[in-house]
Amino acid sequence: MSELRFTVDHEWLRQDDDGLVTVGITPYAQDALGDVVYVQLPEPGTYAPGDEVAVLESVKAASNILMPLAGEVIEVNAELIGRPELVNASSLDAGWFFRFRPDDAAALAALLDQNAYDRLLRATADA
Amino acid sequence: MTTETLAKTPLHALHLELGARMVPFAGYDMPVQYPLGVLKEHLHTRDQAGLFDVSHMGQILLRGPDAAAALETLVPVDILDLPLGLQRYALFTDDNGGILDDLMVANLGDDTLFLVVNAACKEQDLAHLQRHIGSRCAIESLFDDRALLALQGPKAADALARLAPEVSGMTFMQIRRVQVAGIDCIVSRSGYTGEDGFEISVPVAAAETLARQLLAQPEVQPIGLGARDSLRLEAGLCLYGHDMSTATTPVEASLLWAISRVRRADGARAGGFPGAERVFAQQRDGVARKRVGLLPQERVPVREGALIVDAEGNPLGEVTSGGFGPTLGAPVAMGYLASGSAAPDSEVWAVVRGKQVAMKVARTPFVPQRYYRG
Question: Quick one: CATH architecture of B288-362?
Fold first, then answer.
């Protein structure tokens, strides 16, 4: 299992051995959102970066999950339909949202690595 | 975003110490949640007791022998015969019968009425009182003098009675001056959660001491505005500026119960409040739309602003409050519907992100109210 990559929208991506990429939100994001009570998962299909592919509803508000890179959504985490609280309890693991096949597998390397993401969080906290 | 212009309640430092997440609300920097989180804070309040800082709300005294009669000219409520030591829910109406604010009015005795009004409306309410009845009674703003704490939940009475044993004898909507942990307070047995509980008016200088004493009770957790909103929504209670406003009358807002019998069209002191003719006409002739409870038939929360349509997609109304009800474990909402579609169990649809979500018109409260009536 490879190391995680991150977006500035606080999503994490993991390159899996089968060539697909798993997407979830970071512990920072789940904490900021608060208790998640509903998840609308993406329809399988091809999306462009920035497309609003999924929706998270917390007790406070609705938030969009954006497609981090161009690609085709292959699989969704149907467990979240009945247990949306997994996003809070296990954001980096059981709370994943979907898996997709990136158009350009190398594009993943251009995203933030753990160090860069941690710096982003520190900068956010200082702002 | 700058927070420098936001006002702070006397418990602001305590909120920060407790790890609250602060948000701007009605011009104040207020705790939306504590580390427990909205969901657990909500459930804790229904199960034990929660302490809310509602010091941003406006407390006002009206004094003088003519105060009750004067206030009756602004609210459709029986104030003249409000018994000593009791409070009532009231509404300030405007000349069109629209709702300017909702409030609590208590009779403290000695020709003194105690009002609690909404934070966002309090300056306007004070001006409204001064303009219309300022010559008939003394109007004293307590905005800078008193904090307001709410202790809510089935264990609230146990917790508060340890600091003030006499509150055990109070019943729902009773109010009296009570020493709580040696501090002179005005305590009412009421609240905004649907649970048994108390609202405690306390001098600003003693507010933090009292809050710490209440938080030291084993049943009590601090609860933020997030859970306050989900608790009141499950209890079917209106939020001013959302579920009612100057654009809605008490009839449209399904608040007819708040209009005292004696002030109704056939009552001994009929009318005499702003907009009475329109309100009575609506009572007689019916209204085109009214406020109802709504239960989404799917898991998706349906929030304020969502359009409500019929089976053919024709607009019927709009959601005015909506979210997830942690006690029900399901989404809950309220909103305004065309009267023909507002009967309980009617099926309507809300439009959420372009998709239609089936909703059922439901009676409120969504969870049983558990007020202590003795």
Answer: Beta Barrel (2.40)
